[in-house]
């Protein structure tokens, strides 16, 4: 069994070097949003819920309104997640005779949809991530993105691998293509030891990023477990005709208590 895990781990390391072309610099939150949708597991039974919440805040010269809606559905063959966020800001702008009061400075609509659905039986799945971000008061009035990929489950509840291709379009007619590949290992080595790992590669017109997260846990009893985590993140990108390389590593040890 350990030999099998070793082979799967090597397969994932090879995946880290799969994407060799790069296309614009992405923030970590954008990349995480796409990869997090791919990381969700198919459920053993049906589950769904709806959430709606709002928020209002203010200070002496501004006030903000927020409204959020979410619908989530999950069953053994399908995962679907729909999110809509609305935000409006008002503030006093300028100074002196040019000062204006209670000016609308932001009205943002943010719609996100992602899904994973099994096809051709229980091993292949299609993954979709779509986002529409719109704010006509912003420098960039809208930001559209669509990623579609195909994945394969090599061993039930153990190893998944997928590859997605996407396009992003901005209001100034700028477009960029992107490639996202990700892999996940979830393996219970014994009744007491479990190994989990996830990796992804994000490539677009100006950068090549990858991240690897590993965790190993040892169950001491029904309540306590020991856990070690190792994270590695690397970004290589061009900005102002200059190449940058960013590397981040962390190693953490801790206890887990199950109530």
Keywords:
259 residues, mainly beta, twelve-stranded antiparallel β-sheet, 2 helices, 12 strands, globular, disordered N terminus
Q: What does this protein structure show overall?
A:
It contains two helices and twelve strands, in the order H-H-E-E-E-E-E-E-E-E-E-E-E-E. The chain has 259 residues and is mainly β. The chain has a single domain, classed as Porin, CATH 2.40.160. It has a twelve-stranded antiparallel β-sheet, sandwiched between helices. Strand 5 and strand 6 form a beta hairpin. The radius of gyration is 22 Å and the shape is globular. The N terminus is likely disordered.
What is the strand and helix layout of this fold?
Elements: H1 2-16, H2 28-39, E1 47-58, E2 62-74, E3 78-93, E4 100-119, E5 124-134, E6 142-155, E7 159-170, E8 175-188, E9 193-204, E10 207-219, E11 224-239, E12 242-257
CATH class: Mainly Beta
Largest sheet: 12 strands, antiparallel
CATH architecture heading: Beta Barrel
Write down the Rg. 22 Å
H/E series: HHEEEEEEEEEEEE
Q: Which structural class do the helices and strands define? A: mainly beta
Low-confidence stretches: 1-24
Largest beta sheet: strand ordering:
1-2-3-4-5-6-7-8-9-10-11-12
Number of strands: 12
Question: Termini separation (Å)?
Answer: 31 Å
